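Record copied across here:
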Amino acid sequence: MLSQIIKADHGFLGVRFYHMLNLGLLGLTPVAFVAPQPLTFVCDMAVAIALPLHGHIGMNYVLTDYVPKVFGKAARGPARIVMLGITTMTTAGLIKLNVQGPGIIGTLKGLWKPPAK
């Protein structure tokens, strides 16, 4: 299981799950912006999990293609482990924003609010 997470661009996780995440995020994002307050937290938590996972799988495709060309084949494993660490920290930060702050959607909505006078 851990090797599937580290090698996220191979097998089921690499193709089908990545495309399911695409479709899920495509539908979830607009729903999260118009959802009433209790449902916003659920959408925020789903985005906090799905978005970093989507980025993790996508970046593993990039690592597979470009790391061997620049650093050699031996660097592919360490690069994937670093990517797993980045994904883990990103997920933890987004979950903390959801639990202790305004949430992902609340933060994004705040970008369009006029400044308080």
In short: Helices lie at 2-6, 11-34, 37-71, 76-100, 103-110.
